[in-house]
Every structure is written in structure tokens, then in C-alpha cells.
Amino acid sequence: MNKTTYLGELEQMILLVVLGQGDDAYGISIRNELDKRVGRKLSRSAAYTTLERLVSKGYLLTRMGDPDARRGGRAKRYYGLSAKGRAALRASGRALFELWAGHEHLLEEA
Amino acid sequence: MNKTTYLGELEQMILLVVLGQGDDAYGISIRNELDKRVGRKLSRSAAYTTLERLVSKGYLLTRMGDPDARRGGRAKRYYGLSAKGRAALRASGRALFELWAGHEHLLEEA
DNA sequence: GTTCATTTGTCAATTGTGTAGACAAAATGC
DNA sequence: GCATTTTGTCTACACAATTGACAAATGAAC
To answer: What is this structure's pTM?
Structure first.
């Protein structure tokens, strides 16, 4: 069987954002939401490199958008979670929640 | 000011375990708890490498244990969170909880 | 007090993850 | 056609995670 690997810190965040954006997740929207929600700044290339890695690991599926975008610019590449991606996200989420249990008070400090 | 960096996936888990173990956290106990609680297996050297990195970043403080251990073996090196370590942990915890919000149901799947 | 097993920690080298910067494709408006 | 906007790709590097071999420091056996 496969050797178990773990999601990197950014990989996990990106999977979560893709999950939240449903069918509308593409490079720039993911990058923007990460900044807006948690202040995580990424260059475009950092986002794409990680997205591509997640695709090649089988955690994300991808497809090119329709070429008829209305407002100029290149076609979007959309991303969505695979079953394997959901499973990986679930596993790392469970581990984190387990380890955080009992320490939630720390989150409330100034 | 410092360029902002982020805790790696393992770094975060290790800080959480150190936080939980209070004054008793040392290399092997940390490694064992990670395995026991969340099934995360680490070689000893993987644990120490990461602990050392966290020390050099200023997230952990360390001291050698008393040399009078009762049951043989080398003296233990103990670890504890610094204020900076608590702050880093808080920041990454907040980001994770924010991104997980609304997706908790995923954690309950088979 | 030398040898043995046990427990813990260190080092060197490699692979995997995250980052930035320069570049280019594909569309629109003039 | 040419400039502008939006999005994606490529190359190269820095940082994080992992392994395997090694060694220090103690107690126990003799």
C-alpha cells in the first residue's frame, strides 16, 4: 500500500478553500479568499505550484473553464476535491482537532 | 520587522503536544504521545530535528534534565513553549479553525 | 571497574513543501 | 494592430520533514 504522507500546512488550507468554493474554485479566487479570511498572502505562483502538486497527488481534480469569459483574460482552470482529497482533509482535520482539544482557551487570548 | 513565516504541519502538532505536557515534555514523550493520540509516527531524529528548529526560531525553550535519572540512560532534554511559541500556535490555530468553520460535518464521515 | 543493555540525544544527507520572479497565453477595447 | 487585463506556467531556490547510522550517559551483571 501507499506510504502514508501528510498534508502540508498550505496544502490543507488550500483544500479547505476549494471545498468551500464548490464549483467556483480557481487559482486567483483561492488565493484571494485565503488572504481575506485568514490573512495568508501568497504569490500567484505559490498558489499554482501547490495546486498542481495536489492534483498530481490525486487530491484535486481540475478542468479548464469555458473559453468565453466575458471580461477579457485567459481561461480559468477550476479545481475540485476528489474522494481522496476529502479523505486526506478529514484525516488531518481530525488530528488537529484532537490535539487542540482542551487548549481552545489559547485561541481567545489577546 | 520580521518576515512572517508559518508553522509547518508537524511543527504545529509538536507545539501542541509540548503545551499539553507542561513541564514533562521531552523528545521521546512527545514522539510517543503523537503516535498514541493521532497515529503520527516519527523517527526519533525527525522529532529532534523539528524540536531543534523550533528552539532556534524562538518558539521553544529547552533545558537539560537532572543527571540523576533513576533507570539508566542519557539525561533528558526538556522543552517548553515561549511566549512567542504560544503566539505562533494561537495564530495558526485561529487560521485553521476559521477555515474549518462550516465543514465540521466532514470530520464525522466514515 | 570493565562490559552490556537501555534510554536518550546528535549528525549528515536526502526528499518534499513553500516561495518569489520573470514570462506568456488568451481574451477585450481602442 | 497594439496596449491592457486577467489568468496561468516555468525555473530556481529556501525551508520543512524524514531517514539511517552513530554516540553519550546512565544502571546492572559479573
So the answer is: 0.90
